[in-house]
Amino acid sequence: MEPFESLSGIAAPLPMMNVDTDMIIPKQFLKTIKRSGLGTSLFFEHRYDDNGAERADFILNRGPYRNARILIADENFGCGSSREHAPWALLDFGIRAVVAPSFADIFFNNCFKNGILPIVLSPNEVDRLMTLAATPATAEMTVELEAQTIASADGGVARFEVDPFRKTCLKGGLDDIALTLHKGDLIDAFEGKQKTASPWLYR
Based on the domain organization, do 18 and 106 belong to the same domain? Predict the structure, then answer.
């Protein structure tokens, strides 16, 4: 998992409430267990028409939002099923931070496990950032994880909260597997004692 410290880039506005995981990545793309390649199918039904052509009116099909690194969303983002493919698709597209007034719990947790920072701000702050993001000239923002801030083109700075343990994991690029490997010496010591105390388990 790539470490997260400072992120500067275009923020794309998505003023839609209750965006569910099927909208983020439809069910027909869930056959793969690879984390790469899903970015092209992100928001598939909104980005493409029935013939597979891009819809010019969807935000991620327009410059400069094709290169968005931050998504400004609305209430209850990531609701619906628990598919981990949703953060995979966002990450593969290039989005590493999602800002919203609230998130679905499972999606919120899955973001941290995959290197995406979900940021909860007040509805007023989200509205302010959404308005700025809607204009390309003011759409660039900077997220600082250590300071827990989002700096915007109007000179404003929004502050957010993040769990200290999750913050440490994001900064170090530590997913669940990496956290387990950090305990390698303790695991080896335990197995060594167990082999002595219960050798029949290893026959």
Answer: yes
C-alpha pair distances (Å), 154 with each of 119, 129, 160: 19, 9, 18
pLDDT digits (tens, 9 = 90+) for 53-108: 999 999 999 999 999 999 999 999 999 988 899 999 999 999 999 999 999 999 99
Phi-psi group of 65: left, alpha or beta (phi > 0 → left; psi -120 to 50 → alpha; rest → beta): alpha
Can you give the residue range of the structural domain that contains 14?
A: 6-172
Task: Give the 3-state secondary structure of 23-40.
Answer: HHCCHHHCCCCCCCCCHH
Q: Note whether residue 1 is domain-resident.
A: no
Residue type, 111: C
The tokens describing 122, both together, are: 């007040």
Three-state secondary-structure class, residue 54: strand
Give yes or no: residues 29 and 65 share one domain: yes
Of 152, 122, 127, nearest to 139 by C-alpha is 152
- One domain for residues 58 and 120: yes
User: What is the identity of the amino acid at 102?
Assistant: S
65 and 136, same structural domain?
Answer: yes
Please tell me the total count of domains within the chain. 2
Are the C-beta atoms of 152 and 134 separated by less than 8 Å? no
